[in-house]
């Protein structure tokens, strides 16, 4: 079974919101500045492809996944 851990570097985040738009079950934005918040650090397997797509779509490169 493949596990996934989602990480966000809030210091790098540009608050573009692409991740939250693509996958609101896993990502959100803080109300005060729009910086990414990871809602589900270990999403279920059925969301892994969508998480990978959101990570690739992040314009700042603030998101990453560790898989094992």
Automatic annotation (TrEMBL):
Has the keyword Transport been applied to this entry? yes
Q: What keywords sit in the KW lines?
A: 3Fe-4S, Electron transport, Iron, Iron-sulfur, Metal-binding, Transport
- List, for all copies, the residue spans of the domain called Divergent 4Fe-4S mono-cluster: 4-65
Question: Cross-referenced InterPro entries, in alphabetical order?
Answer: Divergent_4Fe-4S_mono-cluster, Fe-S_cluster_ET
Q: Tell me the domain of life.
A: Bacteria
Task: Give cofactor(s), names only.
Answer: [3Fe-4S] cluster
Report the Pfam families cross-referenced here: Fer4_19
Which PANTHER family is this protein grouped with?
A: FERREDOXIN
This protein is called Ferredoxin
